[in-house]
């Protein structure tokens, strides 16, 4: 009894793997960007803004 060939499975699995990889990659990138990078940048901006204000106040006195 011969086994019937499996046709189209590799192609279906390929697109599933590609779409899953891209979906997880984009999700991880967005989680990093909005969960870590933007809050950290806000911290940096606030620090340097406070530092600049202190320099301006020191220069005016």
Automatic annotation (TrEMBL):
GO BP term (any one): mitochondrial electron transport, cytochrome c to oxygen
Subcellular location: Mitochondrion inner membrane
Keywords: Membrane, Mitochondrion, Mitochondrion inner membrane, Transmembrane, Transmembrane helix
Primary subcellular site in the record, as a coarse category: mitochondrion
GO molecular function terms attached to this record: cytochrome-c oxidase activity
Gene3D superfamilies: Mitochondrial cytochrome c oxidase subunit VIc/VIIs (4.10.93.10)
TM region positions: 14-36
InterPro entries xref list: Cytochrome_c_oxidase_VIc/VIIs, Cytochrome_c_oxidase_VIc_sf
SUPFAM superfamilies per UniProt: Mitochondrial cytochrome c oxidase subunit VIc
GO CC annotation, single: mitochondrial inner membrane
Listed PANTHER family: CYTOCHROME C OXIDASE SUBUNIT 6C, CYTOCHROME C OXIDASE SUBUNIT 7A
This protein's name: Cytochrome-c oxidase subunit VIIa
